[in-house]
Structures are given as structure tokens and as C-alpha cells.
From TrEMBL:
Residues in coiled coil: none
Signal peptide: none
Transmembrane segments: 20-37, 49-69, 97-122, 134-155, 167-190, 210-230
Record flagged with keyword Kinase: no
Keyword set, alphabetical order: Membrane, Transmembrane, Transmembrane helix
Keyword Transmembrane: yes
Annotated organism of origin: Paenibacillus mellifer
Protein known as: ABC transporter permease
Source taxonomy: Bacteria, Bacillati, Bacillota, Bacilli, Bacillales
PANTHER family cross-referenced by the UniProt entry: INTEGRAL MEMBRANE PROTEIN-RELATED, MEMBRANE PROTEIN
Pfam families noted in UniProt: ABC2_membrane_4
């Protein structure tokens, strides 16, 4: 446990000192500030949450997760990392936890900024119930996207870099935008977050159970595949 905590601290330091995490946050805040003048609180926050359901979640989270794993290959530090007295499984766990926590920090800062900015600007129609409902939907949507980071980090390891996972994230965004409105949208893991928001209304979980099971299964497969790659195939 002590070695795992040390690995997590190390990975957190790498991530928080990088331009990737804070550049992603600045982009999120900039887009949020642009949307502040659109309608009332319901419209404003719905637009912000929709951005997380699409671009922010798919591409933003994918960039952070892909960079966390891919940078070791791009910077040629993989051999140094594996020389440490820490098991490969713990390194994968530490990197995954660091990426997940980093994305959650970005989410919380962006939400706090959106709420504060809306109050300062004086967006009309404030409703605590509606705000809490949309924030809850944002947390659910973010959780789905964090599961979907599993395939991204697996691709980062297999491709030995961070360009392929970033390209994959952009491709899945296109898949979500094209396939979301179709009948297959409820079964495409990248389309499900946007459908979660669109159909939420007054329900917390408006979709069929299979729409929540699919991202969990695909996400765990990606994380497990990453562990397997580090365990058996990464040093060929």
C-alpha cells in the first residue's frame, strides 16, 4: 500500500506540473465563459453540461488520460519507470487514479467557475432544484466518460505514445455526434452521456440499464487490457 501511495503521489506531481491538465482546464473555462450569456440558468447550465457530455468529456478527458500513459513512451522514460521497485500493476493503478482525479478536479473547478460566473453576470431564472439536478447529471456524465478512458489508455500503451489516443478520442467524438441521434445511439458508449442529458428531464437515470452497463464493461475492458499489456506485452 505504501508503494502504491508513493506511485500515486509521483504521478500526481507529473500531471499537475504538466501543461496538458491546465491547458485543458483553461480551454474548459474559456468555453464556459463564452456560453454565459445564453438565456436563463437552465439554458446556460444545460449548455455547459452538454459540452461535458460531448467535447469536454470525450476529447478533454481522453487527452488527459492518453497523455498520462503515452508520455512515458514519448519522453523515453518507460525503462526508468519500470526500474523502480514498484510492481507494474501498481504503476498502472497509480496512473489511472491520477488521470481520473485530475479529470474530476477539472470538472469541479469548471462547475464552480460556471456557477460563480453566472451569479456575477446575473443570469436570470436561478432555481436551486434545477441547478442541483444539472450538477448531478454532470457528475453521472463525467463518471461515464471516466469509464470510457479505459480504451484510450490502452491505445496509448499499444501505440507507445499519446498521438494515437488523441486521434481515437476525436474519432469517437465524431461517432457520438453521428450515431447519437440514431437507434444505435443508446448502445454506443460515447453517445450515451449526451442521451443521458437529453432524456433526463426529472429522472436521474432515464436510460435503459443496458445503456449504463455498456460503458462500464467497455471501460473495465480497457483498464484490464492496459494492465495486461504492461504485465505481459509492453517490453517486447
Amino acid at each position: 500500500m505504501r508503494s502504491l501511495l508513493a506511485a500515486i503521489r509521483t504521478e500526481n506531481t507529473k500531471l499537475y506540473r504538466s501543461y496538458v491538465l491546465w491547458g485543458t482546464l483553461v480551454f474548459f473555462l474559456f468555453v464556459t465563459a463564452i456560453r454565459v450569456g445564453e438565456g436563463d440558468w437552465n439554458t446556460y447550465l444545460s449548455n455547459v453540461v452538454f459540452m461535458f457530455a460531448s467535447v469536454f468529456g470525450i476529447v478533454g478527458f481522453g487527452v488527459v488520460a492518453g497523455w498520462t500513459f503515452g508520455r512515458e513512451y514519448a519522453d523515453r522514460t518507460m525503462k526508468d519507470l519500470l526500474a523502480l521497485p514498484v510492481s507494474r500493476g501498481k504503476i498502472v493503478a497509480a496512473k489511472s487514479m491520477s488521470a481520473i482525479v485530475g479529470c474530476l478536479v477539472v470538472v469541479l473547478i469548471t462547475v464552480g467557475f460556471a456557477l460563480l460566473l453566472g451569479l456575477v453576470v446575473g443570469v436570470p431564472g436561478f432555481s436551486m432544484d434545477k441547478v442541483l439536478h444539472l450538477v448531478l447529471q454532470l457528475l453521472i456524465i463525467s463518471a461515464i466518460h471516466l469509464f470510457m478512458c479505459g480504451p484510450v489508455i490502452w491505445i496509448a500503451c499499444v501505440s507507445r505514445g499519446y498521438l494515437a489516443p488523441m486521434a481515437f478520442a476525436f474519432c469517437t467524438l465524431m461517432v457520438a455526434l453521428i450515431g447519437g441521434p440514431t437507434r444505435l445511439g443508446a448502445y454506443l458508449p460515447w453517445s450515451i452521456p449526451a442521451l443521458q442529458l437529453a432524456q433526463s428531464g426529472g429522472a436521474v437515470f432515464p436510460l435503459e440499464p443496458v445503456s449504463y452497463i455498456i460503458p462500464i464493461v467497455v471501460g473495465f475492458a480497457g483498464y484490464l487490457g492496459t494492465w495486461a499489456w504492461w504485465r505481459w506485452a509492453d517490453q517486447k
